[in-house]
Amino acid sequence: MTTLTAPATQQQTPTAPRRTVRRTRRRLGNGVASVVLVLFAALVLTPIYVLVVVSLHHGQSAPDNPFAFPTAPDWQNYRTAFVNMHYLRSVGNTLLITLATAALTVLTASLAAWAIVRHTRRWTRTVYQVFVSGLTIPIFVVLTPLYEVMQKLHLLDSYGGIVLAYAATTMPFAVFFFAGFLRTVPAELEEAAAVDGAGLLRTFAQIVFPLLKPATATLAIFVVMQVWNDLILPLVLLSSDSKQTVTLAVYATIGTHTLSPEQLLPTLVLGVLPLFAVFLSLQRYVVAGIAVGVGK
How far is CA 239 from the centre of its chain? Predict the structure, then answer.
């Protein structure tokens, strides 16, 4: 008994210090990660804080220290910006264009990616390469051809025209994104649906598309952020004041020779506010989509 117990005691002796070292290293790593995250959050939030603080100061009483919160905030800046931007109208226009673009992009890109992934032919690989090559083309290269096409189709200064333009520019990334996700989805589920007598559209609607929910949510948020923040296409394709987007409303506050912070900064805050609210409410879908992608 003594000879059997002694080695066990000798083997158990160094185990406790090792566990202590591992716990210490783990706690140290967690502490360093927490400090890095706090510093990164401060780095990201500091410009936003300065933007809000400076926007609450009157132009003639702007402080030397931009971090100092005003003792008497001037909310008149925001009331003036709200009126000058035609805020409700511009936000409504942007929401209409953004949501229509996201819906059209998700529907068409998911169908195209499904056909490319499930039908492995030579022509499907060529089509996929054509879509992916669109990621390398800057928007400035296609502005003139796009304007001429929209003019010939009588789609200038229309919601439909700019939605189609945005859908075309976001399709390459959307097809690439959906195709990568669909390659991880087992084809046996679709084969089982075909055995049960389901057609292609029913299989896509009831089997494939529900499986794309994490990817769809992530892509939709990406499209919303890209369309909401864009200035180039609305500036080129929209000319009516009644169809003005948020970015055009902000751009209109920039003077030719002078720049007034008390006019510009409140419009920036108001312009970003709806997008910030949407992102906060849907951020769990972004995290879920990223986690699913990493897991697969």
Answer: 27
